[in-house]
């Protein structure tokens, strides 16, 4: 009888601990500390600045698409922008949508960086601080605050990078440039189009924009 | 005859093991799902501290937006661009500094209204230093010696007091403002010492010149970004509305205070 009780208790303990142990193991793979969050942003910035040195527009666009693919969580960003319509994408359209969104996001960030002038590669990025958006929940969102001091530009520009841990690394899900969020702005922008024309109209529109970007890039050097 | 096989576990223990394992299997996905289902953008949405967009006058607002775009393109932007074209960059910075300095008393009172006493002290110090040592605010000496600039207004004060933003309104010429922001801008106008002196002395021309230069200065600063935003957007009205709300009706810094930081 004692043996049975002991066995029962042992399995109860093991059974009870199992979820926590598995959860802890999965968390251990993810380096959720401020230095790794800062490293992720620093790598993104360094890579972006090196890509900006390219003068050929098509190459720049391609390199920025690679950057977005490597460092950004385009799936979640894309889903957030179209809201509940994401459920109706399906497998085929999802893959094509993510590809289009990558190109579209690359184009928008490129034009945003270009608006700060040609000397951006000479400019300074200073790193402020990195911290979880909620101190009690470090496995959630992280913010890395940076400041951009564009060469020959009057005021510094703040860039706040929102990251979340995914598959053992951090992925960027939003960048606030001077306090303005990319995904929030795009979500509002497409709301009317999605409401009036539905998902098809939206996909068509974004595809047209990207095709236009590629046509413009094909023109040659900037 | 084969010896009777001795099992380490009794039948009852094995049943117990099966039951416990089932319970474990049942609960494990629940915990993992909780970790995995932490949709980062849903979380971002939850932390969003912006006032929700409330646009019951959208048809009217879109019409006013189109009107303002026409006025900007054909009249206001060319006038502003030509005004600032003749000013060298240093003089432009000086003009901006003067307006920022004139705005400091309003910022000071708003900091007090919001019980942000440290920022109120900094703002007061900035005003004194820049007025006395910065040639009436032409040079931003305060920033050079490390007195930080605080940006706030009566709209933010009303928000602190619990007033809702009210409907979004696109005013002719003035552009987008919520009802609360409209009240805020009006009150801030009367907290500006230059405006008070001009009103008291009846110097309407001086007041109009200052209003024009202040608006032109603000517009000139945002013009390249505004044009880029419109150019990239499939629905410029919605994009401008979103950016306006993020710029004037969010309180992101409140989330990012030192209390939440682990740096």
**Which word captures the global form of chain A?**
globular
CATH superfamily of chain A, please?
Tgt2/MlaC
Q: Please report the two chains with the greatest interface, counting residues with C-beta closer than 8 angstroms to the partner's C-beta.
A: A-B, 60 and 53 residues
Low-confidence stretches of chain B: 24-37, 255-263
Helix content of chain A: 55-70%
Strand order of the largest sheet of chain A: 1-2-3-4-5
Count of discrete alpha- or pi-helical segments spanning 4 or more residues of chain A: 6
Q: What is the straight-line distance between the termini of chain A?
A: 84 Å
Radius of gyration of chain A: 22 Å
The H/E string of chain A reads HHHHHEEEEEH
Uncertain parts of chain A: 17-30
Quickly count the domains of chain A.
1
Largest sheet of chain B: 2 strands, antiparallel
Name the CATH class of chain A: Alpha Beta
Average pLDDT level of chain B: 80
Tell me about the biggest sheet of chain A? 5 strands, antiparallel
- Oligomerization state: heterodimer
Looking at this protein, list some descriptive labels.
heterodimer, A: 222 residues, alpha+beta, Nuclear Transport Factor 2, Chain: A, five-stranded antiparallel beta sheet, 6 helices, globular, B: 263 residues, mainly alpha, two-stranded antiparallel ribbon, 12 helices, 2 strands, 69% helix, disordered C terminus
What is the gist of this entry?
The complex is a heterodimer of chains A (about 220) and B (about 260). Chain A has about 220 residues and is α+β, with helices and mostly antiparallel strands.
Task: Give an overview of the whole structure.
The complex is a heterodimer of chains A (222) and B (263). Chain A has 222 residues and is an alpha+beta fold. Chain A has a single domain, classed as Tgt2/MlaC (Nuclear Transport Factor 2, Chain: A, Roll), CATH 3.10.450. Chain A contains six helices and five strands. In chain A, a hairpin with a 7-residue loop joins β2 (142-149) and β3 (157-166). In chain A, α2 runs antiparallel to α3, α4 packs across α6 (182-217) and α5 (90-114) packs across α6 (182-217). The termini of chain A are far apart. Chain B contains twelve helices and two strands. Chain B has helices at residues 11-36, 40-47, 58-85, 89-113, 117-133, 141-144, 154-160, 179-190, 193-201, 204-232, 236-248, 252-255, and strands at 168-171, 175-178. The radius of gyration of chain B is 29 Å and the shape is globular. The chains are: A alpha+beta (222), B mainly alpha (263). The interface between A and B is large, with 60 and 53 residues.
């Amino acid at each position: 009888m004692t043996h049975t009780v002991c066995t029962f208790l042992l399995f109860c303990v093991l059974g009870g601990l199992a979820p926590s142990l598995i959860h802890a193991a999965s968390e251990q793979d993810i380096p959720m500390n401020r230095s790794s969050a800062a490293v992720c942003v620093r790598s993104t910035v360094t890579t972006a600045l090196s890509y900006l040195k390219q003068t050929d527009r098509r190459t720049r666009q391609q390199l920025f698409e690679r950057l977005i693919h490597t460092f950004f969580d385009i799936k979640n960003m894309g889903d957030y922008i179209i809201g509940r319509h994401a459920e109706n994408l399906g497998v085929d359209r999802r893959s094509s949508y993510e590809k289009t969104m990558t190109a579209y996001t690359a184009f928008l960030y490129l034009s945003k960086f270009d608006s700060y002038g040609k000397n951006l590669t000479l400019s300074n990025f200073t790193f402020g601080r990195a911290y979880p958006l909620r101190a009690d929940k470090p496995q959630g969102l992280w913010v890395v605050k940076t400041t951009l001091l564009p060469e020959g530009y009057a005021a510094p520009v703040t860039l706040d990078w929102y990251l979340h841990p995914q598959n053992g690394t951090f992925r960027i899900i939003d960048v606030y440039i001077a306090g303005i969020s990319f995904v929030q702005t795009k979500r509002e922008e497409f709301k009317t189009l999605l409401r009036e024309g539905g998902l098809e109209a939206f996909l068509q529109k974004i595809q047209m924009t990207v095709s236009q970007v590629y046509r413009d890039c094909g023109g040659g050097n900037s | 005859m084969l010896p009777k096989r001795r099992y380490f576990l009794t039948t009852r223990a094995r049943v117990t093991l099966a039951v416990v394992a089932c319970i474990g299997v049942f609960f494990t996905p629940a915990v993992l799902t909780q970790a995995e289902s932490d949709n980062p953008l849903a979380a971002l949405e939850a932390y969003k501290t912006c006032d929700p967009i409330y646009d019951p006058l959208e048809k009217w607002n879109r019409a006013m937006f189109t009107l303002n775009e026409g006025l900007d393109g054909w009249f206001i932007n060319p006038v502003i661009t030509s005004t600032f074209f003749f000013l060298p960059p240093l003089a432009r910075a000086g003009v901006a500094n003067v307006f920022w300095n004139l705005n400091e008393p309003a910022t000071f009172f708003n900091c007090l209204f919001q019980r942000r006493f440290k920022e109120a002290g900094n703002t007061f110090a900035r005003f004194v230093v820049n007025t006395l040592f910065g040639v009436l605010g032409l040079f931003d000496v305060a920033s050079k010696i490390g007195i930080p600039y605080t940006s706030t207004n009566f709209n933010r004060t009303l928000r602190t007091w619990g007033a809702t933003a009210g409907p979004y309104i696109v005013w002719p010429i003035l552009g987008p403002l919520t009802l609360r922001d409209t009240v805020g801008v009006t009150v801030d106008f009367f907290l500006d010492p230059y405006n008070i002196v001009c009103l008291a002395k009846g110097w309407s021309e001086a007041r109009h010149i200052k209003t024009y230069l202040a608006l032109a200065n603000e517009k000139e600063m945002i013009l390249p970004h505004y044009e880029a935003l419109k150019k990239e957007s499939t629905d410029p009205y919605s994009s401008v509305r979103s950016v306006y709300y993020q710029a004037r009706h969010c309180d992101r810094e409140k989330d990012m205070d030192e209390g939440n930081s682990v740096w």
